[in-house]
Amino acid sequence: MNYFKVAEDILYAQEPVITLDKLKLNTLRDEADNSSRQQSRLCTHINENDNVHEMIIVHKKDMYVRPHKHINKMESLHMIEGEMDLVLFDQNGEVQEVITLGDYRSGHTFYFRFNHAVFHTVIIKSDIAIFHEVTKGPFVRSENVYPQWAPLATNIESVLKFQLTLNQQVDLSREKQ
Fold first, then answer.
1. How far is the first Cα of the chain from the last one, in angstroms, to the nearest whole number?
2. Using an 8 Å Cβ cutoff, are 132 and 77 in contact?
3. Cβ atoms 151, 158 nearer than 8 A
4. What is the 3-state secondary structure (H, E, C) of the chain?
5. How far is residue 23's CA from residue 15's CA, in Å, rounded to a whole number?
6. Within a 10 A sphere around the Cβ of 13, how many other Cβ atoms?
7. How many CA atoms lie within 13 A of 41 on its CB side?
8. Contact, 41 vs 74, CB < 8 A?
9. How confident is the prediction along the chain (177 residues), in pLDDT tens digits per residue?
10. Listed residue (95, 127, 97) closest to 109, CA to CA
11. Phi first, then psi: what are they for 120, rounded to 5°?
12. Dihedral through CA 21, CA 23, CA 24, CA 29, nearest 10?
């Protein structure tokens, strides 16, 4: 796979025709294994200014995705491998919905799309989760909104506490369904 890195775990494909196979996915797995953030991302768009951003993303179990929402953007996700919970929140951080995502053969939801801004995160349930994400470009950092009730990834103690509480809320949400 011909790519260049723009960060520890963010790769940009450099091929005119981009394909994905088991060998290339294994490269992304290796990148996630070596990442301090337990993830890797292959961007198949040319750069941050493209109108459409497509990424193949690998997340390892127990990694933290800070709850966030995207202003003026759509986002879709198609699972390739693994299982994770998509958690939707209200403005105050209360869990509104939990959607279990898995690949097509899992019997779980394998595709979703947001057409409006909603706070969300994912909880990785399998050892690894691999998915294809598409969103509107260009990338503008200020269009990602993070709520005060969600700790920064750098605050490890707060993150662990948040993850524990979130998992309990998700379990309660499932019992109500």
1. 44
2. yes
3. yes
4. CCEEEEECCEEEECCCCCCCCHHHHHHHHHHHHCCCCCEEEEECCCCCCCCEEEEEEEEECCCCCCCEEECCCCEEEEEEECEEEEEEECCCCCEEEEEEEECHHHCCECEEEECCCCEEEEEECCCEEEEEEEEECCCCHHHEECCCCCCCCCCHHHHHHHHHHHHHHHHHHHHHC
5. 16
6. 21
7. 13
8. no
9. 788 898 999 999 998 899 999 999 999 999 999 999 999 999 999 999 999 999 999 999 989 999 999 998 999 999 999 999 999 999 999 999 999 999 999 999 999 999 999 999 999 999 999 999 999 998 888 889 999 999 999 999 999 999 999 999 998 888 776
10. 97
11. -155, 160
12. 120
pTM: 0.93
User: Is there a contact between 87 and 170 (Cβ–Cβ < 8 Å)?
Assistant: yes
Name residue, tokens 């990338």: 139
Structure-token pair, residue 174? 């499932």
